[in-house]
Structures are given as C-alpha cells and as structure tokens.
Write a structure and sequence with these properties.
single chain, alpha+beta, 241 residues, 19% helix, globular, 8 strands, 8-stranded mixed beta sheet, 4 helices, 24% strand
C-alpha cells in the first residue's frame, strides 16, 4: 500500500495520452482482477489514447528502457487495512481543522460522471476543461506525486493511472486510484480537502458519486464508484487555467 502524501515509487499508470484522442472502444481485460465489472475494467485497464502506435504496450521498445507505467496488481480487501486507512485519512484531516459533513446530494447527470471514461477528450469534456489543457499530456507516475492538497490521494490509496500536462496557461492532473475505505468516508475526505482549500464545493450522486470544487480559474473533481471486491475507484482531476 502506498501513502500518497509522499513521493510515489513505481506504482503506476496505464494512461497513454495524446492531443488527438481515439474515441474507439478498446477490448476489456481481466488484468488486476477487476473485469467482473466492465465499466471499472475499462476505466482501469484501457489506455487513454495519445501515442498512435502504442509501442510501449507490446514492449516493442523494451531494449531502449523500462517504461515504468504499468499498474501494480490490485490489493486484496482487508478490514484491518481499511480501518487503518480510514483512521489515517481522518487524522490527516483533523490536523487541519474540522472534518466537513457532506451536504445533501444533488442529482448527477450521466454526462458528469468520470467513471468509465477512457479518452483524454472525454475527461476534459466532462470536467469542462478547454481542449488545450490536454496538449502535451503524458502518462508518468510523477504526476501522482504532484497533486495539490485540494486533490490529495487518500492515505494508503493504490494509484492505477496518472497523467498530466503543464502547457501554456493550463495545468492538468488526472489520477485514478483504489482505496479500501467506504464510499462515505472517501467522499467526506475529498469534500473536506476541497473545502479547506477554499473551493466552492458541491456533492452529486448518480451513476457515481462526485465531489466538485471550483474557484477562480481552478477546479477539482473527485469521482467515486464502487469497484469489485469491496474497493472504491476514485478518479481525481485538477486543472487550472
């Protein structure tokens, strides 16, 4: 298990981002043991297209060097580990003040949910980010260690994908990770994080659960969905423009 508040060593990401994102669906896979749910499987295992030849996927360039962006196998659910992660998350929040209570949930339109999106274009459209935010985007484990505090990863979360871009006036960060803590605790964690950073924060429920924070020129999203095996899949997006 990995604590996200520290630099993250080889965990990582299966994003393959590019300026012209492919919209063609990719085959589902049972890697990481999550194919029991095709939406979660697609989210975790399908690359977000950018490199048209996807050479690194079949290791065609293995002689050049190790790509280092394959996710670790998913951890097995464990009640004790889940309790430790929950306690660590609450201690982290309490150190900065009160833990916020969730407001009543608004209705989340399917188009607002980030669960199951598999191209950079889809994610940018869902969060309302300009297309230029995706220019020069790359998949790299370093992006998971560069999330702002408002978009922190829950302690002991296991990062599965990460990508980002610092192009022109736009900075973009996208991370998908798994956590063992319950959905309500995960929602409360991300809601409090955004509120503590002075974002105007909202909560919506539907296809997934979504925490959204916004202030001038900056937005943060935490989309939370149940994954097989009692885990939660969290999609974090932060962008400034």
């Amino acid at each position: 298990m990995l604590r996200s508040s520290r630099p993250i060593a080889p965990i990582l990401a299966t994003f393959c981002l590019a300026t012209a994102c492919s919209e063609a669906p990719l085959a589902d896979t049972d890697a990481n043991g999550v194919a029991a749910d095709p939406v979660i499987s697609r989210a975790l295992n399908d690359p977000l297209m950018i490199d048209p030849d996807l050479a690194w996927i079949n290791e065609a360039n293995a002689a050049i060097g190790y790509h280092g962006n394959h996710a670790l196998p998913v951890f097995a659910p464990d009640e004790r580990a889940a309790a430790l992660a929950r306690d660590a998350a609450r201690i982290e929040l309490a150190e900065e003040g009160a833990i916020e209570e969730l407001p009543a949930a608004g209705n989340l339109d399917d188009a607002e949910s980030l669960t199951g999106l598999s191209t950079l274009r889809e994610i940018l459209e869902a969060v309302g980010a300009p297309a230029e935010c995706g220019e020069g985007a790359s998949d790299d484990l370093a992006w998971a260690a560069q999330m702002p505090k408002a978009a922190s990863i829950i302690p002991h979360g296991m990062v599965q994908q990460a990508a980002g871009s610092d192009t022109g006036d736009c900075k973009l960060r996208i991370v998908r990770y798994l956590t063992q803590i319950g959905a309500q605790d995960a929602l409360q964690y991300h809601y409090t994080r955004a509120a503590n950073a002075q974002f105007e924060t909202s909560y919506k429920s539907g296809k997934s659960e979504l925490i959204k924070g916004e202030k001038a020129g900056e937005k943060v999203f935490a989309d939370i969905a149940d994954a097989p095996g009692g885990l939660r899949l969290v999609t974090l997006v932060h962008w400034t423009n």
